Automatic annotation (TrEMBL):
UniProt entry tagged with the keyword Transmembrane helix: no
A biological process from GO: methylation
Organism: Pseudonocardia tropica
Keyword terms of this UniProt record: Methyltransferase, Transferase
Protein name (Swiss-Prot/TrEMBL): SAM-dependent methyltransferase
Length: 274
């Protein structure tokens, strides 16, 4: 694991509150995190020792979903909401390897991500960064980094990978996704990964993790049911195999290892707007 960030933080970073992006960064073995971020994962580790696998499976699903869109559809423009820190393989790296002129717009309003994202992408003419709030679809889609860069009259791939489980019920995540989907052109693809309550023997683990996440310095992390997550794909045709644990969504090969219980507590799905 990379050595974490130490010493004095830049003025724009509040190290008294955990950052969702930096918590994921720590879970993925990154170095752009602080003690308050590490505390969140270490608290969850006490009830779920394999908690890092949530972040690993989340990122692996992003990579496979991006490859799927790049190789199995004619879509060449991507809107990645809540992009996070560049710890591992990122959307533009995956798709531009397959489609060199694919356009990727990232959206994130975390100050740490904004600083890293703008620096990372400044030399890539086919990639843009928007510092908007992904809970506000109209603001996101009206931002010049999105509207002036992606053609919203043509199909796009919209990614909400590991983001919506950080939305409180009070903001109505299903309504937010309905507003996004309404603006998408037919042929567009939506990919979502979300913490999951399986409503079976694994529910106790899911709810224990949820309680720790919600009451940690990060303050969010809802484990929703299959019915609740299905509602995030309004009117979309789900690609086979539907909404399943992330590691089971078109894996790169046969499953040789026994899955960790936490792997059954994060699901992914891809839907197409007809």
């Amino acid at each position: 694991m990379a050595q974490p960030t130490e010493g004095r933080a830049p003025a724009y970073i509040d190290t008294t509150k955990a950052s969702i992006a930096r918590v994921y960064d720590y879970a993925l073995g990154g170095k752009d995190n602080y003690e308050v971020d590490r505390e969140t994962i270490e608290r969850v580790r006490k009830v779920a020792p394999e908690v890092n696998q949530l972040a690993v499976d989340n990122r692996a699903f992003l990579i496979r979903a991006a490859r799927f869109v790049a190789t199995q559809t004619s879509i060449t423009q991507y809107l990645d909401c809540g992009s996070g820190l560049p710890t591992a393989e990122n959307t533009h790296q995956v798709v531009q390897r397959l489609q060199p002129e694919a356009r990727v717009a990232y959206v994130d309003n975390d100050p740490t991500v904004i600083a890293h994202g703008q620096a990372l992408l400044e030399d890539n003419e086919f990639t843009r960064f928007s510092a908007a709030d992904i809970r506000e679809p109209e603001t996101v889609l009206a931002d010049p980094a999105v509207q002036g860069f992606l053609d919203l009259d043509q199909p796009i791939a919209l990614f909400q990978i590991g983001t919506i489980h950080h939305f409180d019920d009070a903001v109505d995540p299903q309504a937010i996704m309905a507003r996004y989907v309404e603006r998408l052109a037919p042929g567009s693809v939506v990919a979502i990964a979300h913490f999951f309550d399986p409503e079976n023997a694994d529910s106790e683990l899911a709810r224990r993790m949820e309680q720790v996440f919600v009451h940690s310095p990060m303050g969010s992390g809802r484990f929703r049911t299959h019915a609740e997550i299905s509602g995030l794909f309004p009117g979309l045709e789900l690609v086979d195999p539907g909404i399943v644990p992330c590691y089971r969504w078109w894996p790169d090969g046969p499953q040789l290892r026994t899955e960790d219980p936490v792997q059954r507590c994060i699901v992914g799905g891809v839907g197409i707007k007809r």
